[in-house]
Amino acid sequence: MTGGFCDQCGRPAGEGDHGRCAARRELEPPRYCPDCARRMVVQVTPAGWTARCSRHGVRESV
Fold first, then answer.
1. CA distance readout (Å), 10 to 35, 46, 47
2. Degrees (nearest 5) of the Cα angle 8, 18, 46?
3. Phi and psi for 26 in degrees, rounded to 5?
4. For a FRET experiment, which of 15, 35, 44, 52 has its CA 20 to 30 Å from that of 59?
């Protein structure tokens, strides 16, 4: 998790238990922007994934 929000559930990163989110993060791309918690547009390809936030731009798998 980077930023102030969980990239899997969209809730504040410092609140609650995000153990389930950490397990999902190993297999799935982010669904929410970690900077503003907006739902991102995600595209998964055989080579990786891209996730686009309307305010913070594109994030890509490494």
1. 10, 26, 25
2. 35
3. -70, -30
4. 15
**CA–CA distance from 3 to each of 13, 24, 45, 56, 60 (Å)?**
8, 18, 25, 12, 16
Task: Specify the length of the chain in residues.
Answer: 62
4-50 pLDDT, tens digit per residue, is 999 999 999 999 999 999 999 999 999 999 999 999 999 999 999 99
Measured CA to CA, the distance from residue 29 to residue 7 in angstroms comes to 9
pTM (2 decimals)? 0.87
Neighbours of 14 (CB within 10 A): 10
Q: Name the strand (E) or helix (H) holding 58.
A: strand 57-60
What is the token pair recorded at 29?
């791309």
In one letter, which amino acid is 16?
Answer: G
